[in-house]
Amino acid sequence: MGDCEPALVNHEMEHHIVAAAQHLMMALRASTNLNIDDTRGFISNVEAYLSTKSSPSESRGRLLKEMEEQLRQYEIVIMRWETNGSLIWDSSSEETSEYLDAAVEIQKLLETLGSVSPIRNAKQKELFLRAQCILEIAMSRLSEELRHILVRYKEYYEPEYMSFRSFVEDVVYDESFVSIEDEAADLTSHAEDDGGGTGNAPAEHLVSLIHPDMVPALKSIAQVMFSSKHDQEFCQAYVSIRKEALHEYLVILKMEQWTIEETLRMDWDKLSSEIKKWAWAMRIIIRVYLASEKRLCNEVLGEFGSINSITFVDITKASMLLFLNFGEAIALSPRQPEKLFRVLDMYEVLTELLNYIDALYSEYAGASIRIEFHDLLASLGDYARATFAEFRNRVALDRSQKPFGGGGIHPLTKYAMNYIKVLSAYRGPLNLLLCDKEVTEPCLVVNDEEECSSDSSCALAAHLRSLVSVLELNLVEKSKLFKDSSLQHIFLMNNIHYMVQKIKDSDLRCYFGDGWIRKHIGKYQQYATSYLRATWSSALSLLKDGGNQALSFCRPTLRERCKAFCLAFEEVYKCQTGWIIRDPQLRLDVQIATSQKVIHAYQTFLGVYSGSIGEKYIKYTADDMENYILDLFEGSAKSLPHSWKK
């Protein structure tokens, strides 16, 4: 059938040659100036040539008849599949090839029949319309076959990283600075846990979305439909099925489509869960699914230029907008410190996937998605910076109206230190976000050469030290709410000790350095010393002679001094058993220091004056007092039950 087009064209050319020869003969007969013998010879030769040729109408008719017979053969192949219910690609490869070849040949027939324009011959027009009709039937069938292959041979995969591992319950940070258990603070962000349950996919992991054996079939259908100028029908069918497959996959990942308004109305627990799910699904969709979808598009449509990238964008755009719109809603939400870690999760995921997106949507067709992705990354970065500043402001501006009972660890201290501990796990994104943000709060600068590591000198380290300095200044202000100066020292000792332990026993140590730790160990030890001085100096002065030797021989004065000291001890006991030092070792250290200072002075006093005072006037022995001191700072106020000895 490949010779039909040239034959029809040659026939037309021959028709014009014969007509020209006949016209030339008429002109020669009419001429009177030509040599008669030569003219007769030429005319005789031309007439002999023309006698061997059929008329133009006879030649055209023969060619059209041949084309009609060929069309009939192809029509049989095409229409046979319309009468039975089976699918072409469920049959043998020979039958598949026969069908595709028939569609290609019908297309060639159409090109041949339409090559002479306008079509004046009724038979030629009839064949042209008939071929068009058969080709439309074939294209419709190929479109149906395309859908069948895409649906039936769709591949499902569920690698182990597909299983969503929920985070352990996160630390709850709320606006009221409610105290949280220290154990909960040990649960840090995903950054410390290989993606923290986000199910990181490998850097490159392409999978088969369609059974590999059927990819050549898709490519063959594309070639036939595109060459027949039915590329739009192919793309519509291909895009609709692949979009549906991607949607099904999002359902498997439990991704829901939330509007911006719905997202902004979510309570925090729900929103936090959705953000974790978003980060987890985003990695899998872009690294694995879209990368594999892009490869499939390249395999099927790679030879058709920009159609390839346009088709990929049409398949994936709606799903990408689902992810991007959710992120945009988060960026528009109020900037609250409890949201910072989830936003950093999102920022970290987008940063990680930026190169993937730029590669997947590198062509003009994907420019809008690429730009929106970059814009969202910038918006979440701005949100994180502003939220970090909001946290710092909350730490600096929290103003309690009354002292925190017992001088224990203030909820603000727990809140801030646990928060800072989690911040340290986000070194990567926070260093990027804070590198150009000046630290304005007072903080200890690391000067020791041995401590100038990359950790202690990075932007995050400077900001963390600044935050702790702001917290420390606030705690000094809070201590002034206590009327008892001894309790002020216990309060500051407890809170500085808590800060030191949080930093010393975690990754924060590398950001603060040993110099900072040594300095603040010295600070809380100084507060302990100040507590001893403020609490016991007055009472212990009763046990000293004060340089007045006459008092040594005045028995009533000695008894009064002993009684006054015991009364002062009872008052301290009653008050300070209600105070609290939660850290067992710190409590024991303060108790031992108290014993060494108080019991030693009391024992010395009794050793010198017990005989003069009289045993019945000595209310407590040194051993009694030493035992009673062990009741201090337990957080439960007690009174000494003993009466005076008779």
What is the CATH topology of the largest domain? Monooxygenase
Characterize the largest beta sheet: strand count, sense, and whether it forms a barrel.
Answer: none
Query: Helix count, per DSSP?
Result: 21
| Count of discrete structural domains | 4
> What letter string, H or E per element, gives the SSE order?
HHHHHHHHHHHHHHHHHHHHH
User: Which residues form runs of ≥5 with pLDDT under 50?
Assistant: 1-13, 165-203, 443-452, 547-556
> What share of the residues does DSSP label as strand, in percent?
under 5%
**Span from first to last CA?**
134 Å
Helix fraction by DSSP (H/I, runs of at least 4): 55-70%
Nearest-angstrom radius of gyration? 46 Å
Please report the total strand number as a whole number. 0
* Name of the CATH homologous superfamily of the largest domain: Exocyst complex component Exo70
The name of the CATH architecture of the largest domain is: Up-down Bundle
In CATH, what is the class of the largest domain? Answer: Mainly Alpha
Q: What is the average of the pLDDT values? A: 82
Shape: rod-shaped
Structural class of the secondary structure composition? mainly alpha
Would you write up a description of this structure?
- 67% of the residues lie in helices and 0% in strands.
- By secondary structure, it is mainly α.
- It has four domains: 4-138, no CATH class; 160-397, Exocyst complex component Exo70 (Monooxygenase); 405-534, no CATH class; 542-629, no CATH class.
- The protein is rod-shaped.
- Mean pLDDT is 82; it is low at 1-13, 165-203, 443-452 and 547-556.
